[in-house]
Amino acid sequence: MAATADITLGYMPLFDSAVLIAAVEKGFAGDEGLSVQLVRETSWANIRDRIAVGHFQAAHMLAPMPIASNLGLTPLSLELVAPFALGLGGNAVTVSRDLWARMAADGAGPGADPSSNGASLKRVVESRHRSGEPLLRFAVVHPFSGHNYELRYWLAACGIDPEKSVEIVVVPPPLMADALSTGAIDGFCAGEPWNSVAVAAGAGRIATTKASIWRLSPEKVLGVSARFASENRPTLDALLRALYRSSIWCGDRANHGELAALMSAPSHLGLPREALMPILTGQLTLGDGAADEIPEFFVPHAKAASFPWQSHALWFYSQMVRWGHVQHSPAQAERARNTYRPDIYRQALKPLAAPMPGANMKVEGALTVAAPVGASEKGLVLGPDGFFDGRIFDPDRLDDYLASQN
């Protein structure tokens, strides 16, 4: 099909850009009449600023980024919408080998269990405090990122105050491994492949994963300006259909070898194909000879992975409130919720008869086993989606959840 619309789309060199890259490289965008130019960026701040000034029509975004923009928390804030999710999971928390040695001496390991490894980290933090050592420094990729909020959630649930007991700084994902190896940081939370890069370089050990902290949890979205969504709906709808078809292809195990090879190209991640396969299989090398199998470490399509749940938006909002990033009010909560646009998703995918939830929100963390749910046209299975500490987030009881956080 001849191209009928041009889109410049920014992305970061992370494996969870796979749905975007495959949509272009495998021809799904072209099939929808789109000519998409992919632009690799070096930081999330660049992504944020370039979509704000109009360099990008759409972008690979951290799931909380468009929410933060709509709440006026970022420079050059503009109204953004997130009509499509780019998968679930894909992050890990990696610590330096020195820190891991101290954690292991205090009971950590052998796998990536967030409870036991978090308990050992707490003992190390307390020991360092008693001996007058500096605070441990952890890096995240952006203040308004799933990485920041899941790291804080994990630390707090394990009894470590992320505001007082550690220091949290921002480092771009490709620089994490180097920062760890030089001792500039003691640990980081980032998306793959940068945890595995740190492990392969002998700089770190994976302590836990996003999928272990909150199973099947949201991570990246497609972000577009509200103006673009309003003025270019046929183009946006075509892009979402291309991304949906791409997500099916990326989620098919038969394509995983080809997907890893595609993502390994110098223009994308520039890493060996073999180094990327564990992201798709969940068979992670943790470091120091340890390995672990993480169920559904990264999910690009199954379990409604592309659906922009408004309950996900409200959970991120709850963490923004918890850590003092925004003052809570009903109007602010509504603004955060409406950043995610399942209505656009449904309209765009209607011609595909794609299975999708009938609701816009769900109770997060309530499913302990996979469960079929009511969906349009075809069946859909969700979960399990539990938080490691057993907590549940009911978006209809937001005020109660906010009151329960400490």
UniProtKB/TrEMBL annotation:
Q: List the keywords (alphabetical).
A: ATP-binding, Cell inner membrane, Cell membrane, Membrane, Nucleotide-binding, Transport
Q: Where in the cell is it found?
A: Endomembrane system
- Membrane among keywords: yes
Molecular function via GO = ATP binding
Instruction: Spell out the CDD domains in the cross-references.
Output: PBP2_NrtA_CpmA_like (cd13553)
Q: Which domain of life is it from?
A: Bacteria
Q: Which Gene3D superfamilies does the protein's record reference? A: Periplasmic binding protein-like II
- From the Swiss-Prot or TrEMBL record, give the protein name: NitT/TauT family transport system ATP-binding protein
Species of origin reads: Sinorhizobium kostiense
Taxonomic path = Bacteria, Pseudomonadati, Pseudomonadota, Alphaproteobacteria, Hyphomicrobiales
